[in-house]
Write a structure and sequence with these properties.
alpha+beta; five-stranded antiparallel beta sheet; 5 strands
């Protein structure tokens, strides 16, 4: 097909793409508004060597993975529930939290999600505080040269809306609708590919001149 053929298809059926794109965008945006709002709070814990020692620094990096594993446990979750007096099980709390580490800057990030932003902040900060208290108590018993300093970077944290994102979902629906519309018109054109509707189409596909045509009979 030539470029002009594609332009003709768009002029004839382009409305299908537009209609499906707008319909999908409106549906995605509307569905997002009906979803339960979830907020996420993130607390960061600094884990750095007590002395600027290369070996101790590498040890701290290796320990980050172990710290993440020990934070994300039912025992730790129960301590958070007891201190914050949360009405949930340890399974509920662990489902709401995510713990990760970044060895490039010696930090552990604790993310907590909940339908209530204040609860999300409470979970993230309480979990961070309990971990820092336990690690600090342990390292205070060690030689100063072997200590690793653990502290919450900032206790003032926000809990912005995590999901849904109506604008993003609407944009995604718009793109998906446009793709589906394009596929639909290509399918419709494929169905019409074997139908020769004009003398020009006959001459183009058969390579034969059209000597005459029978006009369509009026109803």
């Amino acid at each position: 097909m030539e470029l002009q053929d594609y332009l003709n298809i768009l002029r004839k059926r382009g409305w299908i793409i537009i209609a499906l794109a707008l319909l999908a965008a409106a549906a995605a945006f509307g569905f997002s508004l009906t979803q339960t709002k979830i907020y996420r709070a993130s607390a960061k814990v600094s884990v750095v060597p007590g002395t600027p020692d290369w070996g101790l620094g590498n040890t701290a990096k290796d320990l980050l993975r172990n710290f993440v594993i020990n934070i994300d446990t039912h025992d730790m979750a129960q301590k958070v529930i007891d201190r914050a007096q949360l009405d949930m099980t340890t399974y509920d709390l662990l489902e709401r939290t995510e713990v990760s580490s970044d060895s490039s800057n010696f930090t552990i990030q604790i993310d907590a999600k909940d339908e209530r932003p204040d609860v999300a902040r409470q979970i993230a900060l309480t979990l961070s505080d309990i971990f820092v208290e336990e690690r600090t108590a342990y390292y205070n018993q060690q030689d100063k040269r072997d200590r690793i300093e653990v502290k919450v970077i900032d206790h003032v944290i926000d809990a912005p809306l995590f999901r849904p994102n109506p604008t993003l979902n609407g944009a995604a629906g718009l793109v998906l609708g446009a793709v589906l519309g394009t596929i639909l018109i290509l399918w419709l054109e494929w169905l019409d590919a074997d139908v020769l509707r004009t003398p020009q189409a006959v001459e183009k596909h058969l390579g034969l001149p059209v000597l005459g045509a029978i006009p369509a009979q009026a109803d």
